[in-house]
Amino acid sequence: MSTAKTTAGADRSGTDSSEQYLTFMLAGEEYGVDILRVQEIKGWDKVTRIPHTPDYVLGVINLRGAVVPILDLRRRFGLETIEFGPTTVVIVVRVMSGRGERTVGVVVDAVSEVYNVDADDTKPPPDVCGSVDTVFVKALATIEEKMLILLDIDRLIGNSIVDEVVPAGAAA
Amino acid sequence: MTIDPEMAEIVKVFFQESREGLDAMESGLLGLGATADTENINTIFRAAHSIKGGSATFGFAEVAAFTHGVETLLDEMRNGVRPVTSEAVQTLLQACDCLREMIAATEAEQPLDQGRIATLNSDILHILGERPNEAPPPAASAPNHGAGPAAPAAGPAAGAGQSTGWRIVFEPVAELLRLRNEPTRMFAELERLGTFAARADVSRLPALDALDPESCYLSWTLEVSGQIPRPKLDEIFDWVDSHCRLEFTPTGSATAAPAAVQAASCAPAPSAAPAAEAKTAPPADAERSPAAVSAPVQKAAAESGSIRVATEKVDGIINLVGELLITQSMLSGFADGIDPDDLDRLRQGLSQLARNTRELQESVMQIRMLPISFAFNRFPRIVHDLSRKLGKKVELKLSGEGTELDKTVLEKISDPLVHLVRNALDHGLEIPDRRLAAGKQETGTLELAAFHEGGNIIIEVRDDGAGLNKTKILQKARERGLVAADQELTDEQIDNLIFMPGFSTADQISDVSGRGVGMDVVRRNINDLGGHVQISSKEGLGSTIRIRLPLTLAILDGQLVRVGKEIYIISLLAIVETIQVPRERVNKLVGRTEVFRLREEYLPVVKLCDQFGVEPDSRSAEDGLLVVVEADGKRAGVLVDDLLAQQQVVIKSLESNFKSVSGIAGATILGDGTVALIIDVPGLIRSVINSGGAISAHAA
Question: Interface pTM (ipTM) of the complex?
Answer without folding.
Answer: 0.76
